[in-house]
Amino acid sequence: MGVVRRTFYVVGNPNESPAMLLTTLIAATASASELTASDTFIVKPTVLADYTADAVKTPRRRSPLLAAGLNWVLPGTGYLYNGERPGLGATLAVGAVGLTVVEQSHAFFGEGLKTYDPMLFNLMFASVLVMNTGLAVDAFVEARAINDRNGHERKRQVTLAPSMLPGNDDELAYGFVVSVR
Q: Tens-of-pLDDT digits for all 181 residues of the chain?
């Protein structure tokens, strides 16, 4: 059997070191064991900016309010939208759906939890409300940080501040004030 001559064309800078060109060649052929002494390779010169400009794209702008709203309605979906922590987002979303199904389908001596034990239901409702609000704020902050890191300007100034509000019977209620400019 005769010697098989192969020619590989490597896109790169011909001014690079031979070791760098060989590394590029090996990566292009998938394995160093495929190379033989009779193989030749030709470096096709390119301008670095020509092929990196297409590969580097500016990430899309995230809406902090949308991320917060998604995480508040269904925990985890705001993280999925942001794309920074998809594993956490999927885990929270699946867990929230599973717990909701159990809560809604479980019967307590023929009654729902709200009727059977209102105190326990109120505690659970308050816990979920606090958890969802915290996750919404976190998704909001994460989306804003993504936009800042990627050089996107803020379209609106949104402020979330704790506040005391008038409640029933001259009592004070605590909550948050959201202002959007």
A: 555 555 555 555 556 666 665 666 566 655 555 555 555 555 555 444 444 444 556 688 999 999 999 999 999 999 999 999 999 999 999 999 998 887 777 776 777 777 778 888 888 889 999 999 999 999 999 999 999 988 888 777 767 777 776 667 667 667 777 777 7
Which residues, listed in sequence order, are joined to residue 173 by a DSSP beta bridge? Answer: 165
Tell me the residue range of the domain where 13 lies: 7-55
pTM here is 0.56
Do residues 121 and 42 both lie within one domain? no
Distance (Å, whole) CA 57 – CA 126 = 43
Kindly state whether residues 75 and 142 are assigned to the same domain.
Answer: yes
> Is position 175 within any domain?
no
Three-state DSSP class for 115? helix
